[in-house]
């Protein structure tokens, strides 16, 4: 397997955690999202992923994009150790939490969106930073409540094991700190994050540990 | 089962199609997203979904949110007729296409985001409409190419059967037209949409056919 990644992409980080958690051997191809206008817009990368974003995963000659689609693929092909519970209800809640981060928080802070806010919408750094914090804060408010309902509020978002939802939390908490969000209103999320980052699958895959980190 | 829905919500429409496609009996509870500041912000709905959005599905005393998490739940609990292919590769591509719509297009046009653009960012109707069309157009450009790679380009987004990806396409095509996007650059998507809307699971669940339609 070959992962197309960028060190600071939180969606790529989710997949790096999944590959590490499952112990799947793979190579990594760095795609620089900023240098020279962004390598993701090159002809050769367009063949890999017409959406021109990372991550993408190549396996057996095929390429898949969208981090959660890739993680579901890894879960089906390499079920152990699992990233989803066995019961229907638990699986639905884990996916709900993962999608809350992937669909409601992350899309509003990706590079293309921030560039559009600064460009066509003529927003300065202050309003853009406030925009990012607003959406992380709103999403985290709901996620904090879900974590209390469905987890122990100290180690994992759901139940007593690492799940797909945890893979989405840690990179988003990293982004929240980078964007100076006050995380004190989210004590369960902060505690879970603090526990998860002690696990090798999370710590060894962090942005600063990547070969393309700057 | 009980679906919390709003007639014009494209995420709710996806779930309505899934329930209809699988022939699952259910009740519908309309949640008016606009009237009186939005019923999704009420105390009683907060219990249902702390994220204060539709859709949500209640089943056996539990509630699930996030349309794709709900559809995966329905697929696991009621596998026939399927909304995912049987092979790992096909499932990954279908999920990639579904997530492309759910994570990259839809989050940028939901009600809360458009209100923020008009409010704190002080954008007028023109720039907001242009913003919506920009993100649908960018997402559709990638989806059009994926449809040509993985489908016949005339009836379904993937392979020769309805899938989870098609459930995301039709509501987004409806939104694209509502926002006056020129869809001529997307002939495959337009053809697939034209075919899908002839199927009862898609046509009977459309916004205008809902009891709460205005």
Compose a concise summary of this entry.
The structure is a homodimer of 214-residue chains. The first copy, chain A, has 214 residues and is an alpha+beta fold. Chain A has nine helices and four strands.
Q: Any chance you could write out the topology, listing elements then pairs?
A:
2 copies of one chain form a homodimer.
Chain A: E1 2-5, H1 10-21, E2 27-30, H2 43-48, E3 56-59, E4 62-65, H3 67-77, H4 88-105, H5 111-118, H6 125-150, H7 164-178, H8 187-196, H9 200-203
Helix pairs in contact in A: 1-3, 1-7, 4-6, 4-7, 7-8
Which two protein chains have the largest interface (Cβ within 8 Å of the partner's Cβ), and how many residues from each? A-B, 49 and 49 residues
What is the assembly state of the chains in this entry?
Answer: homodimer
Q: How is the main sheet of chain A built?
A: 4 strands, mixed
- Count of all domains of chain A: 2
Which fold does the CATH topology of the largest domain in chain A refer to? Glutathione S-transferase Yfyf (Class Pi), Chain A, domain 2
Q: Element order, helices and strands of chain A?
A: EHEHEEHHHHHHH
Radius of gyration of chain A, Cα only, in angstroms?
17 Å
Give the number of helices of chain A.
9
Tally of DSSP β-strands of chain A = 4
- Strand proportion of chain A, as a percent range, falls in 5-15%
Strand order, main sheet of chain A: write it out: 2-1-3-4
Query: How helix-rich are the residues of chain A, as a percent range?
Result: 40-55%
How does the overall form of chain A come out from the CA principal axes? globular
CATH architectural grouping of the largest domain in chain A: Up-down Bundle
The secondary structure category of chain A is alpha+beta
Poorly predicted runs of 5 or more residues of chain A: none
The CATH class of the largest domain in chain A is Mainly Alpha
User: How many angstroms does the end-to-end distance of chain A come to?
Assistant: 25 Å
């Amino acid at each position: 397997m070959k992962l197309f990644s960028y060190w600071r992409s939180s969606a790529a980080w989710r997949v790096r955690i999944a590959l590490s958690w499952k112990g799947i051997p793979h190579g990594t191809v760095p795609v620089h999202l900023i240098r020279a206008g962004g390598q993701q817009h090159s002809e050769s990368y367009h063949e890999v992923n017409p959406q021109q974003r990372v991550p993408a995963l190549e396996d057996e000659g095929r390429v898949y994009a969208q981090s959660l689609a890739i993680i579901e693929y890894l879960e089906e092909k390499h079920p152990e150790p699992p990233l989803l519970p066995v019961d229907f209800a638990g699986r639905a809640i884990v996916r709900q939490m993962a999608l809350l981060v992937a669909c409601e928080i992350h899309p509003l802070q990706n590079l293309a969106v921030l560039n559009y806010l600064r460009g066509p919408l003529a927003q300065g750094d202050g309003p853009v930073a406030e925009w990012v914090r607003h959406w992380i804060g709103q999403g985290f408010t709901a996620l904090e409540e879900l974590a209390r309902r469905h987890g122990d509020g100290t180690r994992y978002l759901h139940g007593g094991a690492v799940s797909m939802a945890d893979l989405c939390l840690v990179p988003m908490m990293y982004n929240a700190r980078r964007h100076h969000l006050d995380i004190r209103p989210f004590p369960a999320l902060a505690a879970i994050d603090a526990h998860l980052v002690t696990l090798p699958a999370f710590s060894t895959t962090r942005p600063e540990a990547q070969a393309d980190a700057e």
